[in-house]
Structures are given as C-alpha cells and as structure tokens.
Design brief:
The protein is α+β, with helices and mostly antiparallel strands and about 425 residues long. The protein is built from six helices and 19 strands.
Length: about 425
C-alpha cells in the first residue's frame, strides 16, 4: 500500500470517528448527569406482573397506578413503604447473549452483517428509566408518596453504526439525521385521595386523583443534531452541528386522574391518565451549548493546514418549560382468591421521551397459595419498548414485606434480555 493511500485511509477513519463522537457526545453527557419510566418502576410487585397493575394496586401502590382504587376498602392498606428502587436500562437491538459473544472479539464480515441486521431502520435506541422511592405513607383512602425519577432516550442513526463497523467508501455519504437524545430527572412529592361515589350490592364506583409537586434536578436535551461526511475524488467534505440545552434545577406540578369500577367482589376494571396536567419550569443554570464544524474537499495535501473550521460555545438562555408526557392505562383484573391475574392496555397521547402512541399490552398472574411467599409472572409487548417476561416473589411476615422482581427478554432465558431491569420494595403494614 503506497503512502498516499495509507494516509487517506487514516484520515477516512478520523472522519468517521469524529462524526461518531459528535453523535454520542450528548448521549454520554446526559447519561452521566442523570443518576436516578417514571414513577412505578420501584414497585417490585408491579414490575413482576408486567406492569399490568391498574386494577390490582392497593395502598401506596394505588397512589402511583390508580388513585381511584383508594376509594374501595378492599384496596386500602395502612402502611409505611420504607424504600423502593427500580431501574430499567434497555436497548432495542442487542441481547445479553449478543453482548457476551461480541465484546472483545474480532468481528468478521458475517459478525458485522449480523450486528447491523439487529438494528431497526430507525436506529439503535437506548432507554434509561429509574425510580427510587422512600417513606411512602398510607392511611385509608389518603396516601403520601415521595420519589426520585429519571428518564432518558437516545437514538443513534443506523448509518453511523454502519460507518463505525465498515468504514466509508468512495462516493459514500453519511448522515446522522434521525439521531436524538433527551433526559431529565426530578423529585416527586405526591398526595393521593380516592372516593367511592356509589355502591349497589357488590358493585362500586370510585374516582381518585394524585397531585404531585415536582422538584427538577436537571435536564439535558439535544435540540439540534446534524452532521454528514462524504468521500469524493477530490477529497473529503463534511459539516455538523450539535446544540444542547441544559438546566440544573426547576419546579413544577403534575396531576393524575383515575376511575375504578368494582364489578363484584372478584373482578375490577380501572382507568387512569398519568400526568393529565403537568408543567415544569427550568430556571437554574439554564444554558445552551453548541458545537459546529465544517471542511470542504479536504485532501492529503491540505489536511495539515487550518482546513477544518470549528466553533463551540456555551451561553446563558432564558428559563424554559417542559411537560411530563401523559398516557392512559386501562386494566381489568381478578382481585380475590389464591390466584390473581390482570391484563392492561397502555397508550401514550404523544411520542415523547418515555412514552409512545403505539399501544402496549401486558398481563400478569400472582399465586398466593404459600401465603408468606407470593409467586408472580408477567409479560408485556408493544409500544416503544421490548417484549419481555417478568418474574418476582417476596417474603411477607406479619407487618413486614419485601418484594423483588427481574425482567428478561422475549424468552425465559436471562440471555434474551436487552438490558437490565429489576425492582426491590420493602415496608410495613399496620
């Protein structure tokens, strides 16, 4: 290989590496700044049931999933939730088996082809959802909850992965259009109330609401991310721009509404709209960060000159407001006996970070024959998330309870999971 061809190959690698770095810059910063879906991930019982929980949730969990359930004496539980934590880090392309197979391995052409086939047309997506709850308190039909919530979505254009794996060729143009990232974290302090409206025999109707004060911890969103590079006979050409808005604090509110119909002592149907009203004003350290670059027909002869022009800046900006995405859940459940089960429909009102207008279906069962150790399993599919099985159990002794849950992929094997999803909850009933 002659010297000119070698230098051209090296520079081609630098161009694709630069574009790849431009894309993941915002993603990495966002993940590092969000240390903690939304409320509900910290309920191990809900996670184990595939989140088919709208009509089964009681006590403190009812405040998170359907406050109308608090209007029924069967769903009221006096208690203290000491702590709950749940995390859901997933991607839409690669399983744990894939990760173990390819990490650190030499990639053949067949391996690279397989990797690219796993990535959907819309790109490689990473989702991060976490919820840490503490000191929830329930008395009859009134519940107080507190938690810290974080959520992030990152999407990487498939062309970038192709470039990273296979490099660029003559007359090849690479774009990162369709890539994006956004993440935010906040604390939530909620007060929930449920009220029974009427009763006719075993049939009862109730409504409820949860009002939440939100304390923003931070937000980082890429408002513009564009870039391209092309290989021509005369050299390389490319340009790119990344603009990211950030804030380190803010405050706001959100309101959930729910309704529930107890058909009889065994069956119940419920519906809730999460974040029906919401607003968050970010007013601390609001900034805009930008990076721009441009180069035109860069060649081996001129690449040593000041041929690449670039600029970066950070400026203060005015306060800005965001909303917490709202979504609808409708659930039907068998609520009494040794074997409980539930089915659920979730529908977002818009496609935003953490929610989707595509419906997600879920179902779960709980077997209580052992009394002190419930056994749970669930399955969920659809929406903008992976299909997954979930499993869980716990220990219930007198006043004390401890529950846990894990989630796999589209089979029972842990190797089928496309990320990590778990939940732990502990507390007291009195």
């Amino acid at each position: 290989m002659n010297k000119d061809k070698t230098e051209t190959t090296v520079r081609a690698f630098e161009v694709r590496t630069f574009l790849f770095s431009l894309l993941i810059l915002g993603a990495l910063l966002m993940l590092l700044s969000t240390s903690v879906k939304a409320q509900g991930n910290s309920s191990a019982r809900a996670v184990a049931l595939g989140s088919a929980y709208t009509s089964l949730a009681s006590g403190i969990d009812a405040a998170r999933f359907n406050p109308a359930n608090l209007g029924f004496s069967s769903h009221q539980k006096n208690g203290l939730e000491i702590a709950g934590v749940g995390a859901n880090v997933t991607n839409n392309s690669f399983t744990l088996n894939d990760y173990n197979k390819f990490t650190g391995a030499y990639l053949t052409d067949e391996d690279k082809s397989y990797i690219l086939e796993q990535i959907p047309t819309e790109g490689l997506k990473l989702s991060v959802e976490a919820d840490a709850a503490a000191l929830g308190l329930s008395f009859g039909n009134i519940v107080f909850t507190s938690s810290a919530v974080a959520i992030a979505d990152i999407n990487m254009n498939k062309d970038i992965m192709n470039l990273f794996l296979n490099g660029n060729t003559y007359a090849d143009t690479i774009n990162i259009t369709g890539s994006y990232s956004e993440g935010y974290a906040y604390g939530s302090f909620g007060l929930s109330y449920g009220k029974r409206l009427y009763e006719a025999g075993t049939r009862q109707l109730a409504v409820g609401a949860t009002v939440k004060y939100l304390k923003g911890f931070g937000i980082e969103k890429v408002v513009r991310l564009e870039g391209m590079a092309a290989t021509y006979a005369t050299g390389f050409a490319g340009q790119g721009e990344a603009i990211i808005q950030t804030a380190s604090g803010g405050s706001g509110y959100a309101v959930d509404f729910g309704s529930a119909l107890q058909i009889n002592k065994n069956y119940m149907v419920g519906a809730t709209i999460k974040n029906f009203f919401s607003s968050m004003t970010w007013n601390q350290d609001t900034e805009e960060h930008g990076y721009l670059f441009n180069f035109d027909t860069m060649t081996v002869d001129n690449m040593g000159e000041d041929f690449i022009t670039s600029d970066d800046y950070s400026i203060a900006i005015n306060n800005f407001s965001t909303t917490i995405p709202s979504y609808l859940n409708i659930g039907f459940a068998k609520t009494s006996g040794e074997l409980l089960w539930a089915v659920e429909w979730e529908q977002g009102f818009s496609s935003k970070t953490g929610v989707s207008t595509a419906a997600r279906l879920a179902g779960g069962v709980e077997w209580n024959k052992l009394g002190f150790m419930p056994l749970r399993m669930g399955y969920a599919t659809g929406g903008n998330k992976n299909s997954s099985f979930s499993f869980g159990s716990g220990l219930h002794f007198s006043m004390f309870y401890f529950d846990y849950a894990v989630v796999t992929g589209n089979s029972f094997s842990s190797g089928s999971t496309k990320g990590a999803n778990f939940a732990l909850t502990t507390g007291l009933y009195f």
